[in-house]
Model the fold of this input.
Amino acid sequence: MAKARISIGTWAYLFNQEEPTNDFHTILHKLQDLGYDGVELGSFGPHPSPATHPTKASRAKLRKEIADHGLSLSGIAVDLWAFKTPGTSIMDEIPAAYLTAFLGWCVFASELDAKTIRVDTVVAPNFFEADAEGQKIGADKGMERFIGVWDKSSKIAADYGLNVCWEFEPGFAFNKPSEIVKLVDGVRAKGNSNFGVLYDTCHAHMCATVGANQTGTKETLPGGELELLEKLKGKVTHIHLIDSDGSLNEHNTSTHNPFGTGKLDFDKLVPAMQASGVPHDWWTVDLCFWPHAWDVTAQSKKYLDKLREKFAAA
Done:
C-alpha cells in the first residue's frame, strides 16, 4: 500500500468509558468533524449488528449513513465471544453455532461494503492445558480445532468478498510468536489466501518483546515486534496502530497507550507495515479500554497524519 486512510474502532467509545457513546450516529458525526477517513465497526452491544439492522433496507440505510458523513468502513469486529466452551463452541469438531453466526455477520458486513472481518481465539492462554468442563485437550489439538473452524470461516468469508483477520493478543490463547505463525500458516495452507493476522502494534510488542501471559517457557524475539512483522510478511490482512508501555491492563491484555506515551518506534514500524503485503490502505487506531477515548481521538489522528505525510503520501 502506497498511501493510507485513517480510521478508528468504535469499541473505544463503549469499553471503560464513564459515559459510553451508544449512539452510532454521534460517533460518525464526531469522526467526520475530526477529519477521519473511516470508521471500524465494533458490531456488538448497542452498535449496529445483524440484530439491530436485520433487513436489506435497514443495512442499506446504515451504509448510506456512513457514506453521508464522508466515511468508509475499514472493517468489522463481530461478537463471537459466546462460543468458547467445549461442547457448545468454536472448540467443537463441527462448530455449527459459531459458523452460523459467522455467516450472518459476513452477509451483514458485505452489505455494508466492509472488506475485512475480525476474529480471535476467545479463550485464555492456558485454556487448553486447564480442565474445562472435564476436558483437557492440549494446545496442539486446540490449534487444530482453530485451524479447522477458521478454514471453514475463511471459505464462507471468501464467498462475500471478505478477508479474515485474526487478532492475536496476550490475553488469549496462542500468543507466542511461533504459535502465531503456525496458526496462520495452518489456515492459509488449506487454500485460504484471504486469511491472515490483524497486526496490532501494541499486541505485537506484548507478544514478541515482552512475552506477556505466555504459558510454559517464555518466547520472545530479539527484534521484537519488528521481527514478528517480518515473519508475518505476506500474511497480514489488517493493521491496528496504538502505542504500548509494556504493561497489561485490568482485563489481562495489552494496555493501549495513546501515541507518544509508550515505547514503540513508529518511524521503524510504519515502513515495515507498508511493506508487509496488507491488501488495503487502512490504518486503524485502536483505543480499546482507554478510559477517556474521546480525549485522545483528535490527537491520534494528528499523530498519524504526520506519519502518513512522512511515509504514505498519496
